[in-house]
Amino acid sequence: EFRTDMTYNSWVTQVGDKGIDRTEGFKLQTLLTSDVEIAAWGGNGLPSDELCVQNGILVTKSSRWPLCVDPQMQIVSWIKKKEEKAGLTVKTFNDEYIKFLELAIQYGKPFLFENLDEELDPMIDPVLEKRYVFVNGQKMITLGDNTLEWSDNFTLMMTTKLSNPKYTPEVMGKASIVNCVITLEGLASQLLNVVVGFERPDLEEARQKLVTQMSDNRQVIKSLEDTLLRELAASKGSILDNDELIATLNNAKAKSIEIGESLATAAKTSEEIDKTRSLYQKVAKRGSILYFAMS
Fold first, then answer.
1. How many CA atoms, within 13 angstroms, populate the side-chain half-sphere of residue 123?
2. What integer pLDDT is reported at residue 100 of this predicted model?
3. Nearest to 111 by CA among 122, 102, 123, 121
4. Sign, Cα dihedral of 245, 248, 250, 252
5. What is the mean predicted confidence (pLDDT) over 242-271?
6. Which of 24, 76, 188, 215 would bridge 159 by S-S if both were Cys, CB 3.0 to 4.6 A apart?
7. Would you say 222 and 214 are in contact if contact means Cβ atoms under 8 Å apart?
8. In sequence order, which residues have a C-beta less than 8 Å from that of residue 18 and are 6 or more positions away?
9. Is the dihedral of CA 44, 46, 50, 51 positive or negative?
10. Is the dihedral angle over the CA atoms 149, 175, 111, 120 positive or is it negative?
11. How far, in Å, are 159, 187, 204, 235, 294 from residue 208 at the CA level?
């Protein structure tokens, strides 16, 4: 509610009062992410409601390393699945983590601290504050007694299962606190998938396949666009004389038409599935209310 009020009421109203042009029906996620990325997140287990998408944006694009308040462990499960292929290392402050953290920093791998308490280990302060210096053109950071080369591909994430942690201003200044506590509406949206999966497993299976298909198609379109731009930028002389580029253009055009038709069909199918799923919304909402009443 705070995010919605701050963004879509206070900020948008101020933009309008100052006479600044803006898009009607502006949504924060359309500016900071894309349908392709959201679909990929969904494929890795991130719920598709607006709050979870905003949390995904904060985790992936925050200027400071994110510290997620995640009592339901949704975000930590998503992070583990999303970063699995990138060689994610998962540790707690109770583990011997220094050597693993050093390797992650040097080789640009993702690193996750989970099950945090309200205090952070001072040992990682240089990493949280990105306290690197340039030595002979290379970024170097001192961690303990060791000086390491800093890779820009390195990412650090932290999560806690505490539902209402009281972090000090110092911690808040070093990390980006992301509130990932589930809401009534968000839980109802997720319970709807569970209810439909139980009552109509065929429908839920079709929905999952459709989500995967649409995600893959959007990623293919994005890849084609990137390829075309790269080919056009690297092209020398007349484009008409570049047979390889023309072949790439024709191939991209054929695939785009094919994928466009597939996406249009998928959109119609999605509408039909959503219409049937809406019959179970009351059950999902009651389940969400029951959960919050008990907790």
1. 12
2. 95
3. 102
4. negative
5. 79
6. 76
7. no
8. none
9. negative
10. positive
11. 28, 18, 6, 41, 30
Angle at 76 between CA 72 and CA 80, to 5 degrees: 145
Of the ranges 139-153, 206-220, 231-245, 256-270, which is most confident?
139-153
DSSP assignment of 25-52:
T--HHHHH--HHHHHHHHHTT---SHHH
How far is CA 41 from each of CA 44, 52, 59, 187, 216, rounded to the nearest angstrom? 5, 10, 12, 17, 12
Residue with tokens 């047979």: 243
Contact yes or no for 62/40 (Cβ under 8 A): no
What average pLDDT does the segment 207-225 reach?
77
Angle at 209 between CA 214 and CA 189, to 5 degrees: 85
Q: Residue 253: count other Cβ atoms within 10 Å of its Cβ.
A: 12
Place of tokens 């890849």: 223
d(CA 256, CA 247): 14
Element (H, E) at 178: strand 176-179
Q: What is the pTM of this model?
A: 0.74
- 92-115 burial: b if 16+ Cβ within 10 Å, else e: ebeeebeeebbebbeeebbbbbbb
Reply yes or no on whether the pLDDT at 127 is more than 90. Answer: yes
CA dihedral 260, 263, 268, 274 (to 10 degrees): -160
Q: Using only the alpha carbons of the chain, give its radius of gyration.
A: 23
Q: Which residues pair with 141 in a beta bridge?
A: 132, 148
pLDDT at position 258 is 80
- Measured between its terminal Cα atoms, the distance across the chain in Å is 20
Q: What does the alpha-carbon distance between residue 179 and residue 60 come to, in Å, rounded to a whole number?
A: 14
Sequence letter at residue 51: L
**Residues, the chain, total?**
295
Contacts of 133 by beta carbon, 8 Å cutoff, 6+ apart: 139, 140, 141
